[in-house]
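Practice problem: predict the structure.
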Amino acid sequence: MINSWFTPSHGIMLALLLGFAIAHSGLAALRVWGEQKIGARLYRVLFALVSVPFATILVIYFFNHRYDGALLWQVQGVPGVKPIVWSLSALSFLFLYPSTFNLLEVAAIQKPQVHLHEQGIIRITRHPQMVGQIIWCVAHTLWLGTSFMVVTSLGLIAHHLFAVWHGDRRLEQRYGEAFRQAKARTSVIPFRAIWEGRQTLELREFLRPAYAGVAAFVLLFWWGHPWLMTVTARVPW
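Answer:
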């Protein structure tokens, strides 16, 4: 028997996450084939036209249902929790935004390419977006404490763990031995390659304008967070 607190929104969120994962990872898997058919720039536009609206729906639905289900714990009034949550959230964006990110390629102004990098945050972890997503999930699950948030976090983490395998598989298919050597010099677990001596952290690689942009985005998001929740609440989902 399903508990009364298991609202339909739990299943809907999982279905949305599964749909996004299929669309996002599926289009990533078809990238080589798609670029041969319509070109790299047009395929990037197609990728964005599918991924961005889907992600927007996910964000709106998450905001509108984040307190659904059972309240498993309540720590929002505990001193020190709020700064911890905000600090973890800010840190998550530093990982979610890889140091190799090229906005001109994302916008298809420059020809989008697949890169094999070992610099910057890739020295810490080969899959920074996965690490960033887990940090974000930990912070928000701690803050909200609802069963809906737990389900959402489990779905997001599962998708990103799959993306670790899927991403490595695609890079190995594309680069072969070059990727296997890069894989041997890096790690999925943060800092593991560094403490094992396979990698050296170069702090100067983090001194780039992109990270100033990330910091500005975090501050803007902190300022606009109440407004965002108000706007999404007007959507009847």
